Amino acid sequence: MKSVFSKLALASVLCVSLGYAADYSKQSDSDLIKLNNGKLKAADAADLKLEIMKRASKLEGDAKKDFFEKLKASYEKATDSWKAKDLRAYEAEVKKAFKEKVQSLSDEAKAELGLGGHGASCPNHQEGTTDKNAGAADKNAGHKH
Q: Which burial class, exposed, middle or buried, applies to 45 when counting CB atoms under 10 A from its CB (0-12, 13-18, 19+)?
């Protein structure tokens, strides 16, 4: 009886974990812009952010700039009436969820999104540094990402 119960429990956990990530790959660009509204759960917003990055990596020039301008305008309009405290809390949750998602990606997937590569060697992204001015010269020299 225990083995039947444990198999059912394992099967349900697998089903839930497979359906956990939101799939935005079939959404149009305009749908992604509309969804970028601060109303998604943090994990779903992190998935949306990954999809936006995938789409943006395929765009160039004015098309890319226009896409990001529309995203920003949509988000600002949707969150305009939020209290600053609530907005900061939501954005911190999304940032944490996004970081966890990125850490679970393969190096190839990170590179495809423009997330791999220089983080460890970049003085602006070194974690655990005790020097608060680490990388300040690079920032002032026009360090771009």
A: buried
| pTM of full prediction above 0.85 | no
> Which residue do the tokens 């359906």 mark?
19
> Per-residue pLDDT tens for 68-115?
999 999 999 999 999 999 999 999 999 999 999 999 989 888 888 877
Domains (range + CATH), the chain: 29-113 (1.20.120)
Are 47 and 22 within 8 A, CB to CB? Answer: yes
- 53-69 per-position pLDDT tens digit: 999 988 999 999 999 99
d(CA 23, CA 21): 6
